[in-house]
Amino acid sequence: MPPIKEILFDCDNTLVLSESLAFEACAELCNEILEKYGKPERYTGPELLSDFVGQNFRGMMVSLQKKYGFTMQEDEFNNYVDRELGKVIEKLEKSAQPCPGVMEQLDHLLASKKYGLAVVSSSALSRVQASIRKVNQDKYFPPDHVYSAATSLEKPTSKPDPAIYLYACKQIGVQPGECVAIEDSKSGATAAKNAKIPLIGYVGPYIEESKEKQDSMAKLLKEECGAIYVMYDWKEFPEALKAVEAS
């Protein structure tokens, strides 16, 4: 393997604990829609995640209409899509926290000056910027090394499509094999795998669901997505990086 030159970080629940906040914001909008159409059901963020796992907000609203038997007009539908991004950013700017232990590792990486650092996310660029700015991580990443599959590409896409990883490598000026990606999800890890970027998995936040969920995700990232190392805690990062460089 060639020497690692660049470390590519996913944002949501890898750098920043943002997923639960995002689903809280989505739940508030879904509840507003349900009330507007006379439906008694209401969602919490975790319940919404359970019902509509793997869907973005647009997909959630389509499923919501099918499940509860109502139809939104296109203009109203698009208005809620626009509002969702603003509401999520509002939540992040108020309450986002860094993933435990990540700041210490970012400090070490920045001080070492051995690697370039970049963020590669599926989320909208404004959301990613709000997240890393809130938790004071923007100092680690050059502004032009923060990439969004939803915003940075000429044709918006989402992980597991590897397009955003390949685009980031091209813009930075490195080959995929000269990078390492850090991902917490199957879709993100698959994107890195499909881009032929060595992968470190991270499953720390899954402990909020259960130890069983954390272990099953670690198994999936390793066996299905080819992670060279799976971290349960960011303090394992130096060991994980050594494992990648030795592979």
Describe the fold and architecture:
- By secondary structure, the chain is of the alpha/beta class.
- It has helices at about 20-35, 45-50, 55-70, 75-95, 100-110, 125-135, 165-170, 185-195, 210-225, 235-245; strands at about 5-10, 15, 95-100, 115-120, 145-150, 180-185, 200, 230.
- It has a six-stranded parallel beta sheet, sandwiched between helices. The chain has a two-stranded antiparallel ribbon with strand order 2-3.
- Helix 9 links the parallel strand 7 (about 200) and strand 8 (about 230).
- Helix 1 (about 20-35) packs across helix 2 (about 45-50) and helix 1 runs antiparallel to helix 4 (about 75-95).
Element layout with pairings:
Elements (H helix, E strand, L loop, with lengths): L5 E4 L6 E2 L1 H18 L8 H7 L5 H12 L5 H22 L1 E2 L3 H11 L3 E6 L3 H10 L11 E3 L14 H10 L6 E5 L2 H9 L4 E4 L8 H13 L5 E3 L5 H10 L1
Parallel strand pairs: 1-4, 1-6, 4-5, 6-7, 7-8
Antiparallel strand pairs: 2-3
Helix pairs in contact: 1-2, 1-4, 4-6
What's the quick description here?
The chain has 247 residues and is an alpha/beta fold. It has helices at residues 19-36, 45-51, 57-68, 74-95, 102-112, 125-134, 163-172, 186-194, 211-223, 237-246; strands spanning 6-9, 16-17, 97-98, 116-121, 146-148, 179-183, 199-202, 229-231.
